[in-house]
Prior knowledge:
Blueprint: H1 14-27, E1 31-34, E2 49-52, E3 59-63, E4 68-72, H2 77-86, E5 89-90, H3 104-110, H4 117-120, E6 127-133, E7 139-143, H5 155-158, E8 168-175, E9 177-178, E10 182-189, H6 192-202, E11 209-215, E12 218-225, H7 227-237, E13 240-242, H8 245-251, E14 266-270, E15 288-291, E16 296-300, H9 305-314, E17 318-321, H10 335-348
Parallel strand pairs: 1-2
Antiparallel strand pairs: 3-4, 4-8, 5-9, 6-7, 6-8, 10-12, 10-13, 11-12, 14-16, 14-17, 15-16
Amino acid sequence: xxxxTTPTPDRDISEALGERVRKADADGxxxxxxxxxxxxxxxxxxxxxxxxxxxxxxxxSYDPVELIVSVRTGTPLAELEARLxxxxxxxxxxxxxxxxTATVGGMVATGLSGPRxxxxxxxxxxxxxARVITRAGDEQRFGGEVMKNVAGYDLSRLMVGxxxxxxxxxxxxxxVLPRPSASHSLRLEMPLDQARARLAEWGRQPLPLTxxxxxxxxxxxxxxGGPGSVAATRERLGGEDLEADFWEALREQxxxxxxREDARPLWRLSLPYDTPALALDGVAEDDLLYDWAxxxxxxxxxxxxxxxxxxxxxxxxxxxxxxPGAAAPFTPLAPVMAKYHRRxxxxxxxxxxxxxxxxxxxx
Length: 363
C-alpha cells in the first residue's frame, strides 16, 4: 500500500495517556482505545470514553543491520512500512490496513496477518517486546532488551490479538525481514479438488511459494525469492501471469468477493491445512474464497452461527464473523480457556476499564 500519509513530528504522550488510565481506573470508567479505527468492525462494540493513541507516534529505534525496529503505537502503519522499504525491508506477516489511517497499535491489537502468513509467520511471531500502560497508569516494558515483568506475565505477546483488553499498548519492538529480490504471481485454472492436491504436493517441495488462494475455478499463486528460483518455478508451474496487486486487494478485502453490496454475513473459517471442503448446506463454490492454501476460508453465508462453528470445530478449527455489529463474532471459549481468560483479565484489569466486552461480553 502506498504511503499517502504526510509524516508529522514524533511525539511521546505516554505520561498523558498514563494519567488518563490512572484516573479511569480510580473512577471505574471504561475506556474505548482508538488508533486509526480502521479495524473497529473486528470484534464487539465497546461502550466507554474514547482514548486515542494517534498523537503517540514515531519510530524510536531502527537498526536495519539487526533487522529490529521499535515504534510507538499511534504511528501510521503506512509510515512504518515506507521507512522499512527505504532499506529494502518489510513486515513479513503482511498486515492488512483497511484504510489510510491504520496504526501500528491496531496491527498488534488485532493480530491480523495477510496472504504471506503461513509461509512467514504471524504478527505474534515477530513481536520482541512492548511497552504497556497498566491499570495503575505506569508504563512497563516487557520483552526486548530489558524485561520488567512485575505482573508475572510476558505481556509483549499476550497483547497481540487481545484488542486492548489487557492494557494500553504504547510501543512495540518488531523483527523485520528483507524484501524478496524477485516476485511473480500466477493464475492457473483448475477445480478446487485439483488445486488442493497440487498445493499438498508443492508443500512437500522447496518451492518459493509465499501466497496461495483459490476462487471460482482458479488457483492464484505468488512466487518470491531469488530471481533464478522464481523464474524456474514460474516456468515449471505454467499458468497465466497475475497482476501483483491481486494480493493487496485480497489482503485489504477489496476483491469483488468482499463487496459490501452483498448483505450476507462474512465469515472467516480457520482450519487445519488438510481439511477438505466442509459439508455445509446451501453453500456453493462461489460463496467461498480459499486463502492461506486453504487454512483460511472466507465465506458468505446466512447459515446460523452454531451450524458453521460446529462444522469448523469438528474439523479442528473455528469460525469468526467479520460483519460489523455481530453479537458474538468470536467462537465461544471452552470452559477451561474461559476460566483462564477471566483470571488474566481480573489480574491485569480488575475494574474492567480496558476495552470491556471487545472480545467477549464477560471480558
